[in-house]
Amino acid sequence: MERIHCLIIGSGPAGYTAAIYAARANLKPVMVTGLLQGGQLMNTTEVENYPGYPKGILGPEMMEDFKKQAERFGTDIRFGYVTKVDFSVSPKKVWVDDTTVLEADAVILATGAEAKWLGLDSEKRLNGSGVSACAVCDGFFYKNTEVAIVGAGDTACEEAIYLSKLCTKVHMLVRKAEMRASKIMQERVLNTPNIQVYWNTETEEVLGDTVVQAVRVRNNQTGEKTDIPVHGFFVAIGHQPNSSVFKDYIDTDSEGYITTKPGTTQTNIEGVFACGDLQDKVYRQAVTAAGTGCMAALETERWLSAKGLH
After folding, report:
1. In this structure, what CATH number is given to the domain that contains residue 166?
2. Pairing outcome for strands 2-9 and 225-229
3. Which residues contact 134 (CB under 8 A, 6 or more apart)?
């Protein structure tokens, strides 16, 4: 059984940043990438809001830069998927692909979260070509155009308001006759002149050959179908944190996000740290994920030193 000093699970901005700091601290980190090496940014196109890339950069290219930087300092990056853990013992035990068992003195969890989608073929086909799950990330590309957003919670309302400041009109599609968002957020949406709310409205298809041109919706009460011309289609129906494999040991909130001690990345299990979108349901940006990845590595180094393991 292989013994590892610092094991990082996940390979998005949080995981790679943790790896860079851990490697520079001589923790000899090993990273298990997960199935989507590079995380959610592998499914994005242009990234323009990450510092250091004044001309913007494609998401996969940026993650390749992160990877190369982590490798430069000696991170051992391994493709694999963690299928089981045992955090009740010390060192911690982690199973990769159900076959390989690793022992780790400290573990950094950086498995991220996944956007929930409607499940439409056209939504998948046009993802990155007008379809997005992040208004803050991609809204700028649709400045002075009309867009649609589907969702009914606080996040959907926040993103609709954000888009309203950039776009000429925001068509907000709500499946039921009411929103589940807080009253104050609903009031803000309803009082924003260029947001039009469509109640009892289901999205049937996103239209366009190579880029989004319109969205086809159906009224749940009348059955009437309408094509709404838009350039962007935003899905804001929530995210699912990739925390299920850790839930037997690590505390999570009601939505599955890992809870950490305030102001830190320390979980309820000593020597296990969590960073990135796995524990952040508020910001969900690459730059904030990278920041918490840095925190996790620094806290891991201090914890190992305090335990006499480094």
Report:
1. 3.50.50.60
2. unpaired
3. 115, 234, 284
* Number of domains within the chain: 2
pTM of the model: 0.83
Tokens describing residue 263:
């102001």
Q: Which residues contact 301 (CB under 8 A, 6 or more apart)?
A: 21, 22, 25, 27, 310
Instruction: For residues 83 and 156, state if they share a domain.
Output: no
Return the structure tokens found at 216: 């086809």
Domain with 286, as residue range(s), is: 2-114+239-306
Which position among 6, 105, 138, 275 bears the catalytic label?
138
Q: Is 134 a catalytic residue?
A: yes
Chain segment 49-76, per-residue pLDDT in tens: 899 999 999 999 999 999 999 999 999 9
* Same structural domain, 168 and 216: yes
Catalytic residue, chosen from 65, 76, 86, 134, is 134
- Domain end: 206, 235, 264, which one? 235
Same structural domain, 205 and 131: yes
Catalytically annotated residue among 137, 157, 167, 294 = 137
The residue-averaged pLDDT of 237-248 equals 95
Catalytic residue flag (residue 138): yes
